[in-house]
Specification:
22 strands; binds nicotinamide-adenine-dinucleotide; binds 3-phosphoglyceric acid
């Protein structure tokens, strides 16, 4: 899937390399930062791409006001400032640059852990103010202490391995990481309730999602070691700020290192009191703010835009890859050229399936079955089948991004399974309350083109090339003559380029014509 990318708005302070790279390849770029929402919406009407960091909020309102927007790029990791659901429904691609700033975020986290342990920030401030408070700022060693890492993804595991060098024992929790996986980078996996009483420091590296909002809350502080220190370089809102302030004031929490806040920049309570608290070391969302990280994410997002831009020559486009797909797994799959003909086949089979059930698409259950070696893990084919099924049955704007959302809304469910076997095929079976059960089977031949192998129980010996100008006729019994169908088509002005038959419980005739297939009516024959 690709986009005509003529003009891009960069609405946050992204490194200049991003603009340079896009401009070098003929993409027009406008940089306007801190735009009020109405101005952002007005400006976006002129652009098909938008690049942001965390400051611009790409809300449903902004997306609704930007009819030409096709792609949003986040030069960074967290996408909680982008309404992914609204973007997906609109068919807008969302990309990010996962990993581009992980080391920088990790290093800031480690420095906050060390600053907390040794009171670096308040001691420095006190000295600048003319005091010599050696006793007041006595700290603690990290050696032998337990660091709990919540979220063992890219940043969490980098933090763990660095803090192990200080002799810290690292424990952690992540629903997606097994105990063996965690052990491979020196972290003992524990349940959260086991972690609270043993941790001296807790550092958070999860996304902000409903399951992690207020993960560190008042009840948690009651279960923790008295004086536990909290570090949050992930997202504001994962730590309940009011509960943290209370715990700092009553001693349940011994200190906090905060880079992120519920409101950025912070203007209200309790955030302001937290920042001013003597046991808090706070930075203004600086995790990714290093030259290295900013250059990396700027180049990575520009490269991904270029990889998808249809107005960039294919040989240039192929130099770049899409590495941070947020809302369209099928998009990543299209980057592998070997998948492309299968994606086309699945779309054509989806279109044929819709024709088989006379367009009665809503409330259809679809089963997609792949066979043959190398066809495992092709889950993205379901999106393509749905895009084919829904073509012409939904409002404008259907694409591979929003097909699953639109299908779900239409009550269409889809599942994919894989069977062994030698021949590489895709079978799409549709089950519909009124239209009954039908299936189409296809394959991709050596010419990389999609072929229909069978409809229901009728098999085309050589396969039939699928695509435009393919007419399918079903005879109600095998007595219906192919000659009758062909003559009727010719009499209607069709130029026939090929014919094929398949016989099962019904007879099927596949006819390719040079132009659009004329509408014909023959008793006992159904045009599909
Ligand atoms: N401060 C900054 O400037 C800065 C910079 C980069 C990233 N970040 C933030 O850091 C966070 C982590 O980034 P990352 O690149 O490591 O992401 P990641 O996706 O690699 O890792 C996140 C991990 O959190 C885990 N997780 C999800 N729900 C969880 C839960 N309920 N409990 C425990 N773990 C859970 C996931 O399974 C995943 O392994 C993100 O929120 C990101 O936005 C902040
Ligand atoms: O999620 C991220 O990538 C970080 O929070 C960085 O955000 P920023 O690009 O606004 O610095």
């Amino acid at each position: 899937m690709a986009v005509a990318l003529k003009s891009v708005l960069v609405s946050d302070a992204v490194d200049a390399r991003c603009v340079d790279l896009l401009a070098e390849h003929g993409v027009h770029v406008t940089c306007r930062y801190r735009l009020p929402v109405p101005e952002l919406i007005a400006e976006l009407k002129n652009h098909d791409g938008l690049i942001v960091r965390s400051d611009t909020k790409v809300t449903a309102e902004v997306l609704a006001g930007a009819p030409n927007l096709r792609i949003v790029g986040r030069a960074g990791t967290g996408v909680d400032n982008i309404d992914i659901e609204a973007a997906t429904r609109k068919g807008v691609i969302v990309l990010n640059t996962p990993g581009g700033n992980s080391i920088s975020a990790c290093e800031l986290t480690c420095s906050l852990i060390m600053s907390l342990a040794r009171n670096v920030a308040p001691a420095c401030q006190s000295l600048k103010e003319g005091r010599w408070d050696r006793k007041l700022y006595t700290g603690c060693e990290l050696y032998g202490k337990t660091l709990a890492v919540l979220g063992l993804g890219r940043i969490g595991r980098e933090v763990a391995s660095r803090m192990q060098a200080f002799g810290m024992k690292t424990v952690g929790f992540d629903p997606m990481v097994t105990a063996e996986g965690a052990a491979s980078f020196g972290v003992q996996k524990m349940e959260l309730d086991e972690i609270w009483p043993v941790a001296d420091f807790i550092t958070i590296h999860t996304p902000l999602i409903p399951q992690t909002r207020n993960l560190i809350n008042d009840a948690v502080f009651n279960k923790c070691k008295r004086g536990v220190r909290i570090i949050n370089c992930a997202r504001g809102g994962i730590v309940d700020e009011a509960a943290l302030l209370q715990a700092l004031n009553d001693g349940r929490c011994g200190g906090a290192g905060l880079d992120v806040f519920i409101e950025e920049p912070p203007r209200s309570e309790p955030t302001l009191s937290l920042i001013r608290h003597p046991a808090v070391v706070a930075t203004p969302h600086l995790g990714a703010s290093t030259q290295e990280a900013q250059q990396r994410v700027a180049v990575e997002i520009a490269e991904q835009f270029l990889a998808l831009a249809t107005n960039v020559p294919p040989q240039v486009r192929s130099e770049f890859t899409v590495t941070g797909v947020v809302n369209a797994p099928v998009l990543a799959a299209t980057m592998n050229q070997g998948n492309v003909p299968w994606i086309s086949l699945a779309k054509e089979l989806g279109k044929l399936s819709a024709r088989m059930i006379q367009g009665a698409v809503p409330k259809t259950t679809i089963q997609v079955v792949t066979t043959g070696e190398g066809m495992e893990n092709m889950k993205f084919l379901t999106t393509s089948v749905l895009a084919g099924m829904l073509a012409g049955h939904t409002s404008n704007g259907l694409n591979l991004i929003n097909a699953p959302t639109l299908a779900k809304e239409a009550g269409i469910s889809v599942a994919l399974t894989h069977n062994g076997g030698d021949l590489r095929t895709v079978r799409v079976t549709t089950v519909h309350p009124q239209a009954g059960t039908h299936s189409v089977i296809g394959t991709v031949k050596a010419d990389d083109l999609p072929y229909l192998l069978a409809i229901d129980d009728a098999r085309f010996e050589q396969g039939v090339l699928v695509g435009s100008h393919l007419a399918l006729f079903q005879g109600q019994d095998t007595q219906v003559n192919l000659g009758t169908v062909v003559s009727a088509l010719i009499q209607s002005g069709a130029i026939i380029t090929s014919v094929a038959t398949a016989v099962g419980k019904n007879a099927w005739f596949a006819v390719h014509t040079a132009q659009d297939v004329p509408v014909i009516s023959i008793p006992g024959v159904v045009a599909v």
